[in-house]
Amino acid sequence: MNRYMQAGLAVMMLGLGGCAMKSAPPLQTYTLATEPVKRVKVSPYADKVLKVSFPQSIKEPLSDKIPFSYSASDRGYYLNATWTNNIGQLLQGVLMESLEQSGLFKAVLPYASTAGEDLRLESMVYDISHHLKGNESYAVFSVGVALVDADTGKLLRVKRFSYKEPTPTVDAKGYVAAVQKALARFEHDLVAWLARG
């Protein structure tokens, strides 16, 4: 091998090494923040203890991955962005905090608590994801809730809340900003719905 070929091979190897050493974008983590909720003046559940169950999902297991979709059957996950925790855990925390702030109940406890409860709030995640269709980019937040009598297991109230919010940017950061807006609407609507008794 002559020296020109050796030099060319060395330059090529350095170039390949440089490509291999390029770093991937840093992993971004996001969380769901609880929005301030007004305290209700009169509550039909003021003397009741509520336990908030861990949310369930009808489509796919709840995780820390942030999903996006181009159609009903085409779904993926962001590689450089995740939630700080399982999305079910984050949603359970938001529900507990907003309901505690509302003053609707005597106490709001996690389902794992050993204390007794009068009522149980169960939730079902239908969709919390980023949708991209044509020129549209929006967050979908769709969650069903059920208020259950803990002693009898009787279903007292049930409702599905669904929201669609446009994203300010077409990426995970824009999606999280949009889902946060939807979540704020959900917290307000949930408290108002429960306050009606």
Q: What tags apply to this protein structure?
A:
single chain, 197 residues, alpha/beta, Rossmann fold, 9-stranded mixed β-sheet, 3 helices, 29% helix, elongated, disordered N terminus
Condensed summary:
Strands 1, 2, 3, 4, 5, 6, 7, 8 and 9 form a nine-stranded mixed β-sheet that branches. The chain has helices at 3-20, 87-102, 172-195, and strands spanning 28-30, 49-52, 56-57, 65-69, 75-83, 107-110, 119-133, 136-149, 155-166.
SSE layout:
Blueprint: H1 3-20, E1 28-30, E2 49-52, E3 56-57, E4 65-69, E5 75-83, H2 87-102, E6 107-110, E7 119-133, E8 136-149, E9 155-166, H3 172-195
Parallel strand pairs: 1-5, 2-6, 2-7, 3-7, 4-7
Antiparallel strand pairs: 4-5, 7-8, 8-9
Written overview of the protein:
Helices cover 29% and strands 35% of the residues. It is an alpha/beta fold and 197 residues long. The protein has a single domain (30-195), classed as 3-Layer(aba) Sandwich (Rossmann fold). Strands 1, 2, 3, 4, 5, 6, 7, 8 and 9 form a nine-stranded mixed beta sheet that branches. The N and C termini lie far apart (87 Å).
Give the uncertain stretches in residue-range form: 3-14, 16-20
Q: What would CATH call the class? A: Alpha Beta
Gap between N and C termini, in Å?
A: 87 Å
Secondary-structure-based class equals alpha/beta
Number of strands: 9
The backbone outline, from C-alpha atoms, is elongated
Sheet of most strands: 9 strands, mixed
What radius of gyration results from the CA coordinates?
23 Å
What is the architecture at the second tier of CATH? 3-Layer(aba) Sandwich
The CATH topology corresponds to Rossmann fold
Domains (count): 1
Q: Which strand-content bin applies to the residues? A: 25-35%
